[in-house]
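User: Can you predict the 3D structure for this chain?
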Amino acid sequence: MKFKHFYNIVFTLAFCVFIACKPDTTCRLPTEVLVQIPISHATIDTLIVQGCDNDLVLYNANSSVTSILVPLRQDVNTTQYTLFFNGKHDTLTIFHQNDTHFISLACGCAVYHIIDSICVTARIDTAKIINSAVETTLQDNIKIHLQP
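Assistant: Here is the predicted structure, written as structure tokens:
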């Protein structure tokens, strides 16, 4: 009887150690890296943003849009977007550096970016870099003002 009680204690301790040492496979940290672009404008009806190399629409909003969130390319150092508003279109080009950042075993890696410079076409009145570091924490990175 004395050994049975001893085995129950050892078994319980071994089970607790086994459960406690199990690796955590759930990612609880953000891994999505997006550029936040506040937009000011006089009057626009809708704003559609898509990548220049494809037909994928990244953003589609009505006239009350104040900010957009879009990804940067991870395979090259230049990302271009076409902005459609008021029946016209403009191009926003972002030149950036890519830096792979290890987050954890469960989360893997995320690609952070440093914005070097930006180019715009004629209908975007002004564009300036607010914060060049693009990471998992959302913050204003580029501010643009659209002409009516």
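The beta strands are 35-41, 46-51, 57-62, 67-70, 78-85, 88-104, 108-120, 124-129, 133-134, 142-146. The two ends are 88 Å apart (CA to CA).
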